[in-house]
Amino acid sequence: MNIRKIITSVLIILGITFFLQYCAALGQTTSGSCTESGGFCTDYIGSDFTPDGVKGSCLGEYSLDSCTSANSSGSCLIDSGQPNETKITYYTSSFADATTASGSCAGSGGTFVN
């Protein structure tokens, strides 16, 4: 391998690394989500979480994608800005309206976002 290929490879790796760090700083990355049978989905946002850890502890359907907001009654931010930050999305199938979802969020110690 010649020096030009090595330098190109290093620059590509550095570019990808900086891009991933930039996205993480914007809060656009998660370690995945878990949709539970109780009508809610949890996004694992904080740096304490890893995809393998979330997948291993998920008792519902695991996804690398964030929870969908379609048919939701609202969301709850828990420990916002902390390494253990999560966001729970409540769905109308179990949480008929924002008042019900907000009450569940308050019980979790979070901040409700409608």
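Above is the first protein from milestone M3; the second protein from the same milestone is given next.
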Amino acid sequence: MWKQNSGKPVETPQFDEQMAIDLGAKFLGEVVILGMAASILGMGFALKRSNDIKRKEEKQTKFENQIRFQTLVMDNFDAHRQLMQAGVEKLEKVDRGIKEMRKGKF
């Protein structure tokens, strides 16, 4: 093992079987804990992303429904306007007829 760029090899102590097992178990435990933490973090991110997508779709649907409703309201107003315009035209025709009757041109 080369440490601190001293240029000399450093001897590491030879572990007996029990120390090697303990160090291996600690290392394996750390790997398992790190793996679990990473997977939990990944699942949390995926869940948040799917919730954000769902909220965005719900907002889009709500917006589309509002547009449909406003279109229906505007169509309804237009239909009423046309009916009222036809009624006004009929009243103007009747008014002209009454004025002509009063003048004696009937």
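Note on the second protein: Helices lie at 17-103.
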